[in-house]
Amino acid sequence: MLAAEPHRPAFHIGAMSATRAELRQQASAAARHLAGLGIGRGDVLALWLPDGAAWLQFLFAAAELGVLVVPISTRYRLADTQHVVAVSRARAVVVATDFLGVDYPGMARQIQGELSHLAHIVEVATRDGFFAAGEGTPIRERGMPSDLLCTFSTSGTTGRPKLAPHDQASIAMHSANVARAFEIRPGDVMLCALPLNGVLGFVQAFSALAAGAACVLLPVFNAAEAAELIERHKVTHFFGSDSMFAPVLEFDARALASWRRGGFAEFVGIGRQVAARAEEKLGLRLVGLYGSSECFALMSQQDPAQPLPERALAGGDPIAPDIRVRVVDGETGESLPEGRPGELQVAGYNVTPGYLNNPDATREAFTEDGWFRTGDLAAMRGRGFVYQARMKDSLRLKGYLVDPGEIEAHLMGYGGIVGAQVVGVNVPGEGDLAVAFVRSGTPAVTEAELLAHCRAGIAGYKVPRRIVFVDEFPQVQGPNGVKIIKAKLREMARDALESR
Length: 500
Fold this sequence. Notes:
Rossmann fold, 26 strands
């Protein structure tokens, strides 16, 4: 991936830059260092580092050795990290000595005391850039395209993470396909403002490197700094979430003028407004995306030529013919025609072979004919699809399967409503009842007015039983951006129903 165009920049972070040749050289030094520790093909290396030179150095070192990298978020603390190290059976962990004042080496030593398979702790002063590896040991066996290279955590807002690995060949193929689909070319610049340990942050960075473009790394997202980096480095590509793009688009259009292509995952329900703002201000046609830890980020995109609101919908057409999608009836398993909602299933090079060291979860995740069950509610459209909701978040109202996004979109059409989230609560004797939570910019709006708006515009069975006003939605920071905590909203919804 780094052999072509060796003198082009690979990445910029702060005041530091490195060429592709320098990154390749430093990765080889790190590989020899790991080999000197006895780490080799088939072993697992946990990477507990912030985004930066050393993160990329050790990932490419692992590829050279045929080692599987298990990235760990720097937001994780002792219990979460110990779980990941235990599940992955990592033989070594690379930790930062100097990030945000957190004692990562101390926690790593505690974990080592509990897990006998964790043989080595490699400490890295990330402020120094690359890890000073020294001479190391010659590499006896090199990695192969079929070797697993990197895992991505599937954890959402609840539960312990499962680890979805992908091999070197699929990562290389997907990176090249994303580069073609999003027109990433040599000399372009990608702003990487999402963590590399998350699948969206990883895919956009490695697609840039595959294309000969440069990555601008922003380890901790800040909208003002992102806008400044776009202007300074003439950033052409930037992918993120609706919550990230909204504040960036408030900055001067001249600072953002180089931004040519981008797409977003809608995590806080303002994707359409963000896409409209980008087009109005910059002439930038942002698109809705789809992906997952198991199937790679950026596996599909909406057509940039589509008008709004269709262009802002999550889902889209697969970016390569090798990626296949279907929507099936959750009970019968039969494929559904265009427009009928059901479970989205995916097959292709982009799908993980299974969860790491978790055969039970792997069996549950795949159909008998080898398709991955995403657990997402979607409907086919043309050769692609429109994502609607997580199956567990979809509503069964009066016997009808309902996408909560339909109700949210209708509420957002009422003047003064700036955010809407709808969840279901199962009530004995009544089944699922919809409860809406809204953020209003107009204090005078009432629940009665919004209920009347719903009754006038959507089917009666879709009208929420309650509409509750909130200042903010409960949120959590995940590896791919901020997400709304649906489980907490369901608790709040139950309280709202009981208070009546």
